[in-house]
Amino acid sequence: ITTKELGTVMRSLGQNPSESELQDMINEVDADNNGTIDFPEFLTM
Prior knowledge:
Blueprint: H1 3-12, H2 19-29, H3 39-43
């Protein structure tokens, strides 16, 4: 999951996060620090 994909989902749910907020959300679970959320990281959410 990229910040762009996360932003799309959040906006579809009526939220309007900034790019910085999206990056912070990804950073919280991005264990390998590659800038995206892969499936094992997604499962920890």
